[in-house]
Design brief:
6-stranded antiparallel sheet, 6-stranded mixed sheet, elongated, disordered N terminus
């Protein structure tokens, strides 16, 4: 049932492998197995809620000290008051031909709580052509009255010195004076709303919009999440974004403290329901070159054994995540290990992808392929990875990036994730990149990869699945990238491509996903990482 290689193909491969052997078959430096690290998922956002308030400006008395209209036909002033509150304008015209009035008119403005509000009071005398501005400011050259009201102190300051009486300087005409009063009404009783009830799919992000009014802002937010009377999480921001990974009803409690330490509570529910299940299938390949087993090689642990350990760790990871052996095709290396389906050979790798995986997967399936082995990059030919552990110098047993691209083209899937743990493996990205594909390599096509430095933190992150945290393949790549950049030699450089542009994202610094190039925080399929952080094992 396994594919056969033609004579012509073998001749071509011989030439390629000759270059491969010349350039790269010196064992990679083997580092110790790395420890995984805890993921920092405490990403806080700053938010401030405003309380509902009203401010009142009452014009109590207006007096003209000079007649604004000294004309025979104008007996006295025709007053109009213009009040600007926090940028909003309110006005009122009063009876004509009166130089002294008691209007008791109130301008009312509703606003979202802020500590200070700017107020401007302007007095004019109405004329048929152009209104004359009356001087009610004690400073020369300024006619209107500018004030700042402090909501917290229930008082104001400004041109009237906080007295509520402002009089023109006598030099700016016409001179007038005005009496007024200012106060606010903010809802002092705290009220909290947790929103909801909410519904979300397993693993789906949902934002909870909390709100509060009254009390004394700023507020402090405390969200608590309980399932079956057991606390499973909390958040301390106004509008937390949460996601959960087990079905059922979650009790959501919100407590908000104000600046005085007073608080109010609210309760709602969040129901988590099962998303439409996808079939998921995995191919795991323990590669190698057999050279570490050659007796004349001095004091060397076979690299093949490292690759077998990495593949076994990957296999155990998916088993821990609930995959059955029917969902995993495991090529365990030179010896058949527990759960293994066959020994690693090139024919068996091709069979696993083009026969077994093809028979399982359809357009609703997520598939994952992991290959660990020695590798190199040959210009114009791409990257290759060795898959002949225990059989040194068997030049037929390498998988080339270009032929693997042909194998993958025969498959149907929803997403296809490929992880290559090999030196100079970055060349696989150029050839395997495509729509709905996530291609990850332990390094670029120039530099080495050090055994264990990428796969252990990668699969270790996937093992952290819980009710409150389920890592995606993007999370796992970031964990591996962080481990490599922080501990391995600088030349190793993990890459990822999931936007189909055939260019890997990543450098020898810490890289975060998604690669939000335009900084808008919005889904953009042209930016690497968006697909990976939304794809789960």
């Amino acid at each position: 049932m396994r594919g056969k290689t033609t004579i012509v193909e073998r001749i071509i491969v011989i030439l390629i492998i000759f270059l491969f052997l010349v350039t790269s078959f010196f064992p990679s430096i083997t580092t110790g197995k790395v420890k995984t690290f805890s993921k920092d998922v405490n990403k806080k956002t700053i938010a401030k809620t405003m309380g509902n308030c009203k401010i009142f400006v009452k014009i109590k008395e207006i007096k003209a000290l000079e007649n604004p209209d000294p004309w025979p036909w104008a007996a006295a002033a025709d007053f109009k008051v213009i009040v600007k509150i926090d940028g909003f304008t309110y006005s009122k015209s009063f009876d004509s031909d009166k130089n002294h009035i008691y209007p008791n008119w109130i301008a009312t403005h509703s606003f979202e709580y802020k500590e200070k509000i700017d107020i401007n009071i302007k007095l004019v005398d109405r004329d048929p052509d152009t209104d004359d501005v009356c001087d009610i400011n004690p400073e020369v050259g300024i006619k209107s009255c500018n004030l700042t009201y402090n909501v917290n102190k229930d008082s104001w300051s400004g041109d009237d010195d906080g007295t509520g009486h402002s009089k023109g300087d006598g030099k700016d005409k016409p001179q007038c004076e005005i009496w007024f009063e200012i106060w606010d009404e903010c809802n002092d009783e705290m009220s909290v709303d947790a929103g909801g009830p909410y519904r979300a799919k397993v693993g789906e992000e949902i934002q909870l919009p909390g709100s509060a009014t009254g009390g004394q802002p700023p507020y402090r937010w405390c969200w608590y999440f309980y399932k079956n009377d057991e606390k499973i999480g909390q958040a301390e921001v106004q509008n937390p974004v949460v996601k959960f990974y087990s079905v059922g009803k979650i009790d959501v409690f919100l407590r908000v403290y104000d600046d005085r330490g007073d608080f109010a509570d609210d309760h709602t529910t969040l129901t988590i329901f099962e998303e439409e299940k996808k079939d998921k299938y995995v191919v795991i390949v323990a590669g190698g070159d057999g050279l570490g087993d050659v007796s004349w090689w001095p004091d060397d642990r076979a690299d093949d054994e490292d690759f077998e350990d990495e593949a076994e760790y990957a296999y155990e990871t998916f088993k821990n995540l609930g995959y059955s052996d029917d969902d995993i095709y495991y090529l365990s290396g030179k010896s058949l290990k527990k759960g293994g389906d066959a020994l690693t050979t090139k024919d068996n790798v091709k069979y696993a992808i083009t026969k077994w995986l093809k028979s399982k997967s359809d357009r609703n399936s997520d598939i994952f392929i992991f290959i660990a082995g020695h590798g190199t990059y040959i210009p114009k030919l791409g990257s290759v990875v060795a898959v002949y552990p225990g059989r040194p110098w068997n030049v037929w047993e390498v998988v080339m990036s270009k032929e693997m691209a042909i194998w993958l083209s025969e498959l149907k899937y929803s997403t296809c994730t490929v992880v290559i743990e090999a030196c100079q493996s970055g060349g696989f990205i150029e050839d395997l990149s495509g729509r709905n594909r996530i291609i990850m390599t332990a390094t670029d096509h120039f530099n080495p990869a050090y055994c264990g430095s990428f796969p252990y933190p990668f699969f270790g992150e996937l093992r952290k699945t819980s009710d409150t945290y389920k890592p995606s393949y993007g999370d796992a790549w970031m964990a591996a990238d962080k481990r490599v950049d922080g501990n391995s030699p600088d030349e190793q450089n993990p890459l990822i491509d999931d936007n189909g542009d055939r260019k890997g994202y990543g450098d020898n610094r810490l890289n975060l996903l998604p690669n939000d190039k335009d900084g808008d925080g919005q889904y953009d399929p042209s930016e690497d990482g968006w697909l990976a952080i939304q794809t789960f094992p």
